[in-house]
Write a structure and sequence with these properties.
Elements (H helix, E strand, L loop, with lengths): L1 H4 L7 H4 L1 E9 L8 E6 L2 H11 L14 E6 L6 E7 L6 E6 L18 E8 L4 E6 L5 E6 L7 H9 L38 H5 L2 H9 L1
Antiparallel strand pairs: 1-2, 1-8, 2-3, 3-4, 4-5, 5-6, 6-7, 7-8
Amino acid sequence: MCDELADDPDFNIDSSVDLWVQDFTWNSRETPYDLLAFRKVTPKEIARFKKEMGKLVITEPPWDAAQLIMIDQQGSRTERQTLLIPMGSTPGRFIGVQNMRAAFPLEHIRRKSIQLVRFQMLMVGKGRFVVIMECDTGETSLLHRDTLKEVPAELVYSAAAMVPFPVRYSHLYTGIKIPETMKEAMFEPLFLANHESFRPSYADNAPQIGNFFFKL
């Protein structure tokens, strides 16, 4: 799927250094990010990643080629850091090494058991939004710059429409077979909000959403 996203890539490492806020997710059962920051990596941080994760990753990456650290905060969870290393000549293509210290004591992780994560990133909406896709899972997020204090819903939707997905798995119907004597129709509810993601906890606390589906 990343090859489709990278068909006409536009990603600038220097411009990506910023704080980003979640707008949409695709192909994900939970919100991958709430707040996400990119910043330039230092030699000291590269050395730390190599020391802590070098014996745990299945394949060691070219550590010294790392350019960025991606830091994400998921609700009240401890932040997670991912070292990003440019992959090939495609702009926005990275391999990532996730530092597992925030999730597990490193001594409990088996050696050579951690997979590298492949990412494709794309800037849309004149650099006001960034798309982040995990190539192996297809999990994708659209985020806007935190400096955009007012983000009209129409602007977010326009940016989301620029994401060139060949297939959106969440659109595939897997329910009971429709009888041949009946017609079928498919619709997609669209959630637009300036500073919230559509997560299960939000739906549980929004009765009007449940009423909408019940009436249908």
